[in-house]
Amino acid sequence: MRDGRAARAAEAVEAERLAALVPAERAQYLVEAAESWAAAGRSDRAGELFAEAIADGGHVVGDARSYYAGFLFDTGRPDEALRALAELRRSHPDDPFAYVSGGEVLEEAGDLDGALTWFSEGLSRFYRGFDTADAVDDATLMQLLTNRQRVRRLLELPPDGWDDITLSAQAVLLADLTDP
């Protein structure tokens, strides 16, 4: 366990170094450092870096606030986590992966209805009139669809049109993996 934490601390130090060296990607590296510090058992430092990343305002795949919300849940602060996600949602993030991240945070916290809302909202907001080929070609679309389908199954909801597209796209991807 100690070696794992030491490795994560080393990753955090490297990500902080990169944040200082690459200003255009500072926020992304700060989030990576924060996650590594959290995994290394340094939630104090992780919290500081999440705050810096959010204040920086630079691009982070999935939005820094969604990762911060996950950190807040993990550190026993669910009310703060829900507020962070509500603020993120109100801001209408322009990155569809923010809806993947936000939904995954809620799913992990056990809020399946909330997760379903995030995944569905991401699909409605960024993807209109898509089909199986679109899902196969777009990793974020596929992730939203797959996550949504999984949550709908957990909620014991009947399949819908988006679930049908998900199944078709999964079959295509599986065939591609197994076709020599």
Considering the chains and any ligands shown, give keywords for the structure.
180 residues, 2 domains, 10 helices
What does this structure look like?
The structure is a single chain. Helix content is 78%, strand content 0%. It is built from ten helices and no strands. The model has no long low-confidence stretch (mean pLDDT 96). 37% of the residues are buried. The longest helix is centred in the N-terminal third of the chain and has 20 residues, at 2-21.
What is the compact description of this entry?
This protein is mainly alpha-helical and 180 residues long. The chain is 78% helix and 0% strand.
Q: Please write the string of helix (H) and strand (E) elements.
A: HHHHHHHHHH
| Helical content band | over 70%
Q: Structural class of the secondary structure composition?
A: mainly alpha
Backbone CA Rg: 18 Å
What shape does the CA trace take? globular
State the total count of DSSP E strands. 0
Strand content: under 5%
In total, the number of domains comes to 2
Unreliable residue runs: none
Main sheet: strands, sense, barrel? none
The count of helical stretches stands at 10
Mean pLDDT: 96
Layout of secondary structure:
Layout (H helix, E strand, L loop, with lengths): L1 H20 L4 H14 L3 H14 L7 H11 L3 H13 L5 H13 L3 H15 L5 H6 L1 H16 L6 H18 L2
Helix pairs in contact: 1-2, 2-3, 2-4, 3-4, 4-5, 4-6, 6-7, 6-9, 7-9, 9-10
